[in-house]
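Continuing the batch. This is chain 6 of the set; chains 1 through 5 are on the previous pages. Same settings as before, nothing changed between runs. Recording input and output for traceability.
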Amino acid sequence: MFDTLGLLCVIWCCVVLFHPLHADIQCMGSEAQESPITNVKMNWIKMELSWESSKNFSKYKCAIRNSVTRSVPKEVNSSLCSFPVQFYMPLHKGVSFIIEVPDTNISEHCTFIRGGMNGSAIENFSCVIYNISLMNCTWQPGRDAPGDTQYFLYWQNSRNRYEDAMECKLYIKDENGRNTGCMFQNVSIEPEKAYFLVNGSSKDALIQFYDEYIQLYKIEILTPPLNITANCTRDSVGCIITWQPPLTSHMKDTGCFQYEISIRNKDEPEEEKKDDRSEVRNGSYEFQNYNEKKKYVLKIRARGKYCRVSSNWGEWSEPIEFGQGKDYFIFVILFLIALGTISVTLLQYCLFKRYCSFKSIFSPIPQPREKFNASTDEDIQTKYVNLPKTHCTEEITMVEEMTQLSKKKTRGFPNMKENGFP
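Output for chain 6:
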């Protein structure tokens, strides 16, 4: 038999959570008689179950369960029952709770049913903490959600501090302007689970909510270990590698970490490089295969072990090189010197060939003249006279006036023959 007061629509609207939750609570009492337990309510912020009873019972038993987990029935002396943190369950998956009166057959079974349009709730919700105090949460819109659906994220770091509930202040939006994620700053990791709720609103339909409990230390990506050093010697001890634990906001115990050390030979060909990986618990490691003539590359990362620290491997440290390795410096210097010498020589040769004559620079040295074999001036003149001549043919046209002029000149000089002239 359904309790008429048990069927109600829960509107969760606290001071911080401005958008309501749409859900129903359906309760069913004992079939033999009408149940005195009525007006069942659930405070989802404090995880407190309350009810009214027409009879004054001194004791009650209450329990909560879902498809996977069921709490141990808890005995209370009033009509108010608070559930411990380890039994906090996401409401969107469906939750039921039971109220019983000991030593009687009176009981009330209630089921939480999420309201809203099917397929409108967000999907693939996940969060990650990085850089010690930054947190990103992302999700995808519901596959059947209306186009104008907008989502809002609320979270509470500890369910024991109800005033800590807050809405996201820095949303991540998609190309349609819908909120698909949120970024948080100054996040501290508490021992208890944090509560996340994503609600939605639309003009066309009621949007189903999504909620999740997350242990924050499990989603943290640890930063690399700090102050990594490699102290190498030539004796059989090899190299002693030391470091300090990564920084976290909640764990100061150095014994809570496990480390993975990666050492490889830098001078090996890329296809032959092998990682020498080891896992240790303390903050030092002895590298026994050290060869001072080789250069090595060292990286370290950490994860939690047996403590409230993420069991996933964190970020690798920046590569650190140690060892001498092959000395390529002298070869580089010699190569640069040879290359420079060749370049200068070629440049000089090109400049001389372009702008200078080797004969003008390196003119021949004159030989001394032999005293007895020297040629006379007459020989030189003879040789010069006997040089081949260039023959030219000239045509002379004699005119009569030239003949008359010649006769006149002969008359003017009567003694020319007497003086030996022809």
